[in-house]
Specification:
The structure is a homodimer of 206-residue chains. By secondary structure, chain A is mostly helical. Chain A is built from nine helices and no strands. The structure holds a DNA duplex (30 and 30 nucleotides).
DNA sequence: TCGTTTACAATGCGATCGCATCGTAATAGC
DNA sequence: GCTATTACGATGCGATCGCATTGTAAACGA
């Protein structure tokens, strides 16, 4: 009963489509994202896109989850490259620089996230997926700050929860600032470093 | 040549429509915003909406500019109510609490802003209008922080530009957190106060 | 080889979009 | 009263959307 004709790497095809979607989001903005446009950007027929994603929502969900994976892998790669010390401060900085839309592909990923947020506002299933990863990142931030406190780098009077919120806000909002060209990536990074230096005193980050 | 039949308060009508648009954005999300839906929400015919706004973009632009005015007036009202001291810290807090989507109407206004941001990504004319007010608020933040430094409340080592960026980020991102129900208004306000207390030492805010 | 299953293309359908057009009612100046 | 102008409603048009349907080529299992 197991017939396997014309074997094609499903995952690779889906990734292709997701990347076309991301590219399209970065260049044409979020309104240019239709099944037809994505297909054209990916250089395939619309029917083929439909073959790999039954609905548009399924495609968006896949692209966003893929985005999260890419972020995660990027952060791991930075930390395991050995170029950075494994201090909480360095890890936090690695996360920030990975997430922020510092280049063109980052811009696409960022706008993908915004598009997803838009959907999540009125669509419960999207909201669930959107909400999923947030507390984890939040907790991670707080954990790293607490480790900084235990190491004596972060002042005991600092509140890890509030500081996490500020850090999250910095990533969230400054990314938007870059996309809108209100601030340059350099300016944003310097503000991030300013904040981290204040929080961690003068403890080395790398 | 000046014939004025059926005199109708144009501004009031446009405000009505803008409020229907905001209401619709808050409840149905940003995708429910079409000329037909706005007309239905406002309880008028679609032709009438078209009569007051030649294009959809004109309607959106009006609604967003109106939003800015409402914010501005709200902040002025708070400051002139006499319930708050005119310290930089109090003014900053007033701005934050005015902008943040703490209630249902605030939610609508917030989502309006996001919708506008989306358009601004790919539409230059929207981008211009969106970019317009940002540097001013930024400069205001920096000015107030500098005043705090001159008054001796804010540490001299604090960088007004970076601190402004953090403050802006707090407003920007935490608003989204409230809309997505990741954090409650109370939690957000406590983080704002935490930050302001840190920045202004223990100087009184009210 | 034959049949089943998958990969992919092409097209059509109903819904909805923004916008234009047309018609009508009401009110001003002449 | 007549006319110009405005307020407002109704409808239609072309474009585009997501999605369903259909057709065809290819490749595996039997």
């Amino acid at each position: 009963m197991v017939k396997v004709p014309k074997q094609v790497d499903h995952a690779a095809r889906r990734a292709e489509i997701a990347e076309a979607l991301t590219r399209l989001t970065a260049t044409r903005g979020l309104e240019g994202v239709s099944l037809r446009h994505v297909a054209a950007e990916a250089g395939m027929s619309m029917g083929l896109v439909q073959h790999y994603f039954k609905t548009k929502d399924e495609m968006l969900l896949f692209a966003v989850e893929r985005r999260s994976q890419v972020y995660e892998e990027g952060i791991k790669a930075r930390l395991e490259s050995g170029e950075l010390p494994s201090t909480p401060k360095a890890i936090l900085r690695a996360i920030m620089t990975e997430i922020l839309p510092l280049d063109e592909s980052g811009r696409g990923n960022w706008l993908m996230g915004v598009a997803f947020f838009i959907r999540a506002v009125s669509d419960p299933s999207f909201a669930a997926a959107y909400t999923e990863g947030v507390p984890q990142l939040f907790e991670l931030f707080a954990l790293l700050i607490r480790q900084g406190q235990e190491a004596g780098d972060v002042d005991k009077s600092a509140d890890p929860m509030h500081e996490s919120a500020i850090l999250w806000a910095l990533a969230d909002s400054q990314g938007t600032n870059i996309v809108m060209k209100h601030r340059t990536p350099d300016e944003v990074l310097s503000t991030v470093d300013y904040y981290l230096d204040r929080l961690f005193g003068s403890a080395p980050a790398g």
